[in-house]
Fold this protein.
Amino acid sequence: MDKVFLITGASTGIGAATARQAAEAGYRVVLAARSEDKLQALAQETGGLAVRCDVTEWDDQQALVQRALDAYGRLDVAFANAGFGGARGFKSGTPEEWKEMVLTNVYGAALTIRAAYDALVDAKGHLVLTSSVAGRRPLPGSFYSVTKHAVTAMGEAARQDFKDTGVRVTLIEPGMVDTPFFDSRPSIRALDADDIARAVMYAVSQPAHVDVNELLVRPTAQM
């Protein structure tokens, strides 16, 4: 039976690139995002299953995992990738934007773990979380950095929680990636989404006794 790879935030950027590489590697892909048009196009391209999902809603997350199990009977990789950033500075942006960032980047990732937990244990599967370089060192005035520090902690907390289940946990920490995440193009030769997707596929392709816990990937030119 083909293995199954679920991705949140799958409609663009790192999520979409990972979906393409996972499909090429023989996985059945389950694609989740709020943007249905882009999701449907990617599903047609990859032969995957598109599921509209707001990661901040527990019912949506439960339904997403159930759709994967109903369609394919198993779940081998859950990639909690949905997230977004904002302007730096504690007087920038709005409190509402901060709240939404916490709900998406932190609460949403935690809900993905909770929803996929039992299925991952059944398959002795793999949990992947998207953090950031900003989740390793604080950036000036960056509330996004705050949320990604939480995701970094979540990865290690999950790894310990899955101990003795056979489930592996990988935290992906990209540096600057040229994706729609940024309003303007990076000034340096940034990473491509495919570069991060290859890092994800490297981690999930290791033998069962090898757990790649963290992958920090930066452009050569990044400070």
